[in-house]
Amino acid sequence: MSAQDKFVWLIGGIGAVLAVASVVGWTLRRRVTGESGRAVVDNLNARLRSWWVMVSVFAFAFLLGKTATLVMFALVSFFALREFLTLTPTKPGDHRALSLAFFAIIPVQYWLIGVEWYGLFSVFIPVYAFLLLPSLSALTQDTERFLERSAKIQWGVMVAVYCISHVPALLLLDIPGYQGQGALLLFYLLLIVQMSDVLQYVFGKLLGKTKIAPVVSPSKTVEGFVGGAAGAVAIGAAMWWITPFTPLQAAGIAFVIVLMGFLGGLVLSAVKRSLGAKDWGSMIRGHGGMMDRMDSVSFAAPVFFHLTRYFFSA
Asked: What percentage of the chain reaches a pLDDT higher than 90?
């Protein structure tokens, strides 16, 4: 089966699942009468509507090719970084560093992917940007809470730009017998992360009793995590045919994606709580901000990329 045929089947399958879920959501909305039950159903339907929009946008970008995909994820990083830094107030002394982050670091990072310069792509932000950003702030001679301010900017750039950029970087991988199918790997990563989030939410609502970290994320439960992880790993194993992995390998890698995605959601929830915020923003209806949708991806993407590159790339 060609890469294009696999892509068509994949999008068709996702569309069918969303259609069934939308019908179920519409039915539940008409039948559920309790206030708490109605709130859960409304939240689920809002997520489904947003899923339709996101899948359509992603599919359209992938069909247009590599450049469109890179531009799309560069915009994702831009909005995610904006949300992160909006919740972590800065001072005038940080404006040079912020301008560099938005208007130089983001385009250069994604340009490096476009020209397939893996060596510089992998160290540009954690080495050069990491050192240059606080240097620019130091030149303004504003030392008030300097370490805290610099750490916030560096952390935002690492999570919102460096980590997220590993998603389209999957297009760089040269895997024997899998050339030209990087977009499928990209879809695989996003599918497993998002299905894990959805299934953890569903199992948590249905069976959740034991809180994992109630102060950080009250909705995360042991039952929700186990049920969601098991479901996402099963889906990952079943989707092996769009990857270079065997079914067993796909299950193992899906588990790593689920685990890292869970940790990403937990860590960035802790950041939000420390800032007194519930969501990173309100850009995506039913999902909060861009960073709320990419928190799990930001932790899962680099690990998935490097595992795949190390074990499967030429």
From this structure: 42
Strand, coil or helix: what is 294?
A: helix
With a cut of 80, say whether residue 136 has pLDDT above it. Answer: yes
Q: If phi over 0 gives left and psi between -120 and 50 gives alpha, with beta otherwise, what is residue 211?
A: beta
* pTM of this structure: 0.87
> pLDDT tens, 179-221?
878 888 888 998 898 888 888 887 887 787 888 888 888 888 8
Rounded distance between C-alpha atoms, residue 40 and residue 198, angstroms: 13
Separation between Cα atoms, residue 188 and residue 240, nearest integer Å? 9
| Contact residues for 84 (Cβ-Cβ < 8 A; gap 6+) | 155, 156, 159, 160, 280, 291
Residue 179 — φ and ψ, nearest 5°?
-60, 140
Domain boundaries, the chain: 1-64, 65-172, 173-314
Using an 8 Å Cβ cutoff, are 113 and 305 in contact? no
Residue 108 CB partners (closer than 8 Å, separation 6+): 124
- At 283, is the secondary structure helix, strand, or coil? coil
Q: In whole angstroms, what is the distance from residue 75 CA to residue 63 CA?
A: 17
User: How many whole angstroms separate alpha carbon 74 and alpha carbon 111?
Assistant: 10
Distance in angstroms (rounded) separating the CA atoms of residues 219 and 210: 10
Q: Nearest to residue 72, comparing CAs of 154, 171, 152, 197?
A: 171
DSSP state of 243: S
Contacts of 52 (CB under 8 A, 6+ apart): 18, 22
Going by pLDDT thresholds of 50, 70 and 90, the confidence category of residue 301 is very high
Q: What is d(CA 25, CA 15) in angstroms, rounded to the nearest whole number?
A: 15
pLDDT tens for each residue of 40-58: 677 677 767 767 777 777 7
Comparing 14 with 47, the larger pLDDT belongs to 14
220 three-class SS:
strand
Interatomic CA distance for residues 71 and 170, integer angstroms: 15
